Amino acid sequence: MTLLFSSSLALSFPMVVRYMLDAAFEQHDSTLLNRIGLGLLLLFAAQAVLNYIQTYWLSATGERAVAGIRRELFDKLLTMPPGFFTEHRTGELTSRLGTDVALLQGVMSNQIAEFARQIFSLTGGVILLTYLQPRLMLTALAVVPIVVASGFYFGRRVKRITTGVQDQVADATAIAEEAFSQIRVVQGFAQEPAESTRYATGIAGVVAAALQRAKVRGMFFGVITFTIFGGVTAVLWQGGRQVLAGHLTAGSLVSFLLYTITIAAAIATLTSLFSGFQEAIGAAERVFEFLEMTPTIADPPAPVALPRPLRGEVEFRHVRFGYHKGADDPPTLEDVSIHLRPGEVVALVGPSGAGKTTIASLLPRFWDVDDGAVLLDGIDIRQLALGDLRRAVGTVPQEPALFSGTVRENIAYARPDATPAEVEAAAQIANAHDFISELPLGYDSRVGERGIKLSGGQRQRIAIARAVLKNPAVLVLDEATSSLDNESERLIEAAFERLLVGRTTLIIAHRLSTVQRADRLVVLDHGRIVEQGTHAELLRTGGIYARLFQMQWKNSEELSAMLSGGLAI
User: Fold this and answer.
1) 261 and 360 in one domain?
2) 497 and 449 in a common domain
3) What is the CATH number of the domain that holds 462?
């Protein structure tokens, strides 16, 4: 409504000027001239107030709408399975959240309102000019088909090129994000020049695409400028002839010229906005491409409720799975059947690439099996709500993922409503309380991005404390001690002794000394189960497990000999 009133006041300005000039030049009435001048000031004041209200409310509405899109896109990305993130780099996703949505923000906050204003100004100006001087109006309208045709032709090219620019920006952002996240590797191998070259190449692609867009936009505005002002010139020439012939007063001529300029400015602005809209459409397509995606792993239509209390019985029943779904691609797992009784500790061992971590990823349903089934307490996990399933399964990974907040926030991530006492109790069980207490701010100390301020053993113990606080019925330990020093391993092993009590546990480890506590060992090779039994039983059979165990003990003996001076270094 304020936009309508504001534009109406703007359209009334040329008409008021006409009466003002006629009062001066035709009627020589100073009183009328003063009144019209005061009226103009009041008109401008009212327009200023309306413009303020309109700008604020439209901007606020646009900002809220864009914030909603940004939240919706972020929420959608959070629902996508891990496989999605292996196909899309983090920098690309953050670019769509940032740069692409920013283009939509400009349109929704400002350009839509400006578009409506100019449409109203153009329509009102055309109607008034047609009423005042229909012959001159026909001359002015002659440029419209040229403007419209140019807008469609160049606008489509700008849209296509803008999509390419955004893709190039996403690629460059991904390169920068990757370099920053691996900065120690970059600097450790002195590859700063190489990363700088990679980023410069990506930015060069952005510049090249942007320059192509600038060239097209320049041609577009050149054609539009010539067409519009050529039309204005024709109208002025024809209007001048009518003044010479005595058919127009000075006030009528000036008001006509002001209306002509209003129409020309509206057309010029609309063409510029049209170009901006085409850019925003390209960005919107990239944003809605993700918004319209359906997660490949989602809650079933009618989820089955997990029994309470949960016993923690896990079964992999004739599971077949492959990351690559091509007919010629061999599966990662083939006919794998494992049964974990409630409270049982089962260890998966085998050579690298045997499929151990894949099994751990199938249990919380990060991927779905191709054939067979994974069951929790006798229920196919595909029949469970993802939230219920993942709350029942806890994982301590080889590389614990910490956020950049405080120690307390990282432990309480498992249960944000946990009390400080519960957080500290979990840290006690994880053998983390002592080192946390020695930090400058204790539990309120910030750990840095990805926990960079802490050692590997400290990060691992915080991850264990998080798992303790979660209190899952099923626990997965994925290479949880493979990269730690002896002292850290000793502390974490002691924490595991307490954590494993009363839980069904699946242990994955290359260091076979860490799996001897397991009730049963399952040996994988090339995606198949080749051996099962206790540590002693598998050693007696002399199979793959026995060979792996002997190789690791041999390496340990050689290392001890080297450290004691028995071998030359």
Assistant:
1) no
2) yes
3) 3.40.50.300
The domain containing residue 56 runs over which residues?
2-291
- The answer to whether residue 155 sits within a structural domain is yes
* Structural domain count, the chain: 2
Q: Are 58 and 113 in contact (CB under 8 A)?
A: yes
- Residue whose C-alpha is closest to residue 61's, from 116, 113, 117: 113
- Does 341 lie in the same domain as 274? no
Cis before 351 (ω within 30) = no
Burial group, residue 308, by CB count within 10 angstroms (0-12, 13-18, 19+): exposed
302 three-class SS:
coil
Pairing between β-strand 345-349 and β-strand 504-508 as defined by DSSP bridges:
parallel
Task: Please provide the distance, in angstroms rounded to a whole number, between the alpha carbons at the two ends of the chain.
Answer: 85
Over residues 112-161, the pLDDT tens digits come to 777 777 777 777 777 777 777 777 667 666 766 776 677 667 767 776 77
Alpha-carbon distance of 472 to 78, in angstroms, equals 22
What DSSP string describes 408-467?
HHHHGGG-TT--HHHHHHHHHHTT-HHHHHTSTTGGG-B--GGGTTS-HHHHHHHHHHHH
Rounded distance, CA 14 to CA 9, Å? 10
pTM: 0.67
Q: pLDDT band at residue 272, thresholds of 50, 70 and 90?
A: low
Q: Can you tell me the distance from the alpha carbon of 540 to that of 563, in angstroms, rounded to the nearest whole number?
A: 31
Residue where a domain terminates, one of 291, 324, 357:
291
Question: Residue 178 falls within a domain, yes or no?
Answer: yes
72 SS3 class: helix
**C-alpha dist (Å) from residue 72 to 60, 63, 200, 486:** 18, 14, 33, 46
Q: Distance (Å, rounded) from C-alpha 258 to C-alpha 155? A: 29
Measured in whole angstroms, how far is the alpha carbon of residue 273 from the centre of its chain?
A: 27
Query: Would you say residue 304 lies in a domain?
Result: no
